[in-house]
Amino acid sequence: MSELERYYRILELEPGATLDEVNQAYKDLVFVWHPDRIPQDNHRLQQKAQEKIKAINEARDKLRSLKVKHQGATYSQPYTPPYSTPYSPPSPPQPKQPPPTNHQSTQKNHDLSGQDFSRANLSNKDLSGRNLSFANLSGANLSDTFMHKVNLRGANLSEANLFRANLLLADMREANLRSANLIGADLSGADLRGADLTGARIRSGDRLLVKLIGANLAGAIMPDGAIHQ
Question: How far apart are CA 111 and CA 37, in angstroms?
Fold first, then answer.
């Protein structure tokens, strides 16, 4: 087996897959194997996860470099998926940055509280750990966005597209999710106390299509208008 074939196999792809397919496979596998999702006291699985992440990073970087060189493409902003570097222990909290002045600069700031992102296209961005409390995200496109441990307390997410968004362990207390699209979203462990989900899309027929494992829904207004007890 050649090195190139090995990289495709690591990403569970067929040889010749497109750059978009490589990027998507990378994100899917990192979501599964990132050490943050493995119990810290399970040292065997932690070691395995770190080895997997290392191999996945290497395969993605090699294939992406090859394809970009082959296509002769230039990118003003290189694709930067979440978890693009090997896992390391969390760093101490950093001082708050000055309020951003536009959508591009806010990418680098952790404190985005109260910012206006209404109708913004934030699809596939990494907003993990950001403070978006009381931000206006109404109508925003957040599909496939990584928002692991994000603070969305009191945020306005009405009519936002959260298709397949990762909201693992997010703080969404009192958030406005009226008429939001939550199909395929992962809300496992999220705090949704007092959130308003009136009219939100969470089902296809009788099938629930949102992950709510361990989510706290106490006092939340459910899509049908009932208050969760």
Answer: 24
